[in-house]
Amino acid sequence: MLDVRWKAFLLFCAFSVICVFLWFIAGEKIALVTFCSGLLVYLARHIYWLYQLQKWFKKPHVNNIPEGAGVWEDVFTALLKYERNNQKNQTQLSESLERFSLATTAMPDGLVILSASNEIEWCTPHAENQLGLNLAQDKHLPIVNLIRDSHFIAYLYNGDFDTPFKLKSWRNPELTLEILLIPFANNQKLLISRDTTQLEKVETMRRDFIANVSHELRTPLTVVGGFLETLSDMEGAIPAQIKHYFAMMEEQTVRMRRIIEDLLTLSTIESNAETPENIEINMPSLLQSMQNDALSLSQSLYKSKHDVHLDADPQLYINGAQEELRSALSNLVSNAVRYTPKGGELWLSWQRIDGNAVFAVRDTGIGIASEHIDRLTERFYRVDRGRSRETGGTGLGLSIVKHILIRHQAKLEITSALGAGSTFRVIFPKSRVVTHSL
Ligand code: ADP
What we know:
Elements: H1 4-26, H2 28-58, H3 71-106, E1 110-114, E2 120-123, H4 125-131, H5 135-138, H6 143-146, H7 150-158, E3 165-168, E4 176-184, E5 188-195, H8 197-233, H9 243-271, E6 279-281, H10 283-302, E7 307-312, E8 316-320, H11 322-338, E9 345-353, E10 356-363, H12 370-373, H13 385-390, H14 397-407, E11 411-416, E12 422-428, E13 433-435
Parallel strand pairs: 7-9
Antiparallel strand pairs: 1-2, 1-5, 3-4, 4-5, 6-8, 8-13, 9-10, 10-12, 11-12
Helix pairs in contact: 1-2, 8-9, 9-14, 10-11, 11-14
Bound molecules: adenosine-5'-diphosphate (ADP).
């Protein structure tokens, strides 16, 4: 099919030929008048259809596109086709949007889209209920004006969205929410709020149950342990042939008591998200005492001392809960001793790396196969039960370490290979670091 340019050109040529023909039969005046009148009519028709097009643009609708004539017929037919396609795409788009909106409404989680400057752009009805928002009124308002929890604000501006944030609803204190922020596109964020009230209740029940059971067991166990100790101390009270049974019973009672103490420690730490104190800790001196403890432990376990090296930055202190951190870091050091056979070496280090404070304990011990590493901080997870028991382990040490570190916003990194020793690193954030002048 010819395009508009060709059609106009051919029309012009045909008309010119007619005028030249007229020139020969009717003279030049008639031919010139006819040519000019033809051009005027042609121009008037264009102006007319341009006007029709302009009129249509004022109320553009697929049903009232003018039909046009000549080249304008082609223009309006193309416009009609374009409009029909457009309408089809729009219908498809609104159907998809409708489906998306129905799907997000059906989701039990709330969704909020935040702009680069953390203003609310859109949210689902669940998010409105859970977070106390009203999209009609709150659109384009900064979310921090509506969720005023200081921890939430810190989480939002911190930029570390790897772990979800727990938020107690201020409208309904019974409601516990888990907030997850996912950055996308141009610094926008998707906020997902999940109602974890039920989960939280179950978790509290589990924690209370363990704490109660541990408490209930502690007293009878202390009594049994006390009697066993008294009997063992009484000269001639136990026949010689069963004396070693008593020694075994005493040993097991001590083990059970240690497990119960660890369980109680774990449930106390787990139930408090906040650290009890936040004081400046003299880490170089703490590490010095841990080095001495490591030497005495290796002496008592192996009857010979490991080589324990220490390299600590004397000016590097941190803010935190002293007793908790002593217990967590000592646990890592005592593990290094317990899982490093006689004659092994240990390196304790305390350095500032990229502004963070990093504690590391490296040993030349038995090492850990890679498939176990991710599970070590689970309660009672032990690679070698026998060795753990022999060296007085409860299987709870690293769980306690993990929870203490979470309370200090610190991270635990484990690198190890079977038979090639292990390195446990604890990274404390910049916010906890204190530079102490000497
Ligand atoms: P346990 O009381 O059994 O030592 P932990 O929770 O402290 O329990 O440690 C869990 C498990 O991790 C241990 O049973 C042991 O298998 C492994 N582990 C911990 N530290 C080391 C280490 N330095 N070298 C080798 N294995 C280790």
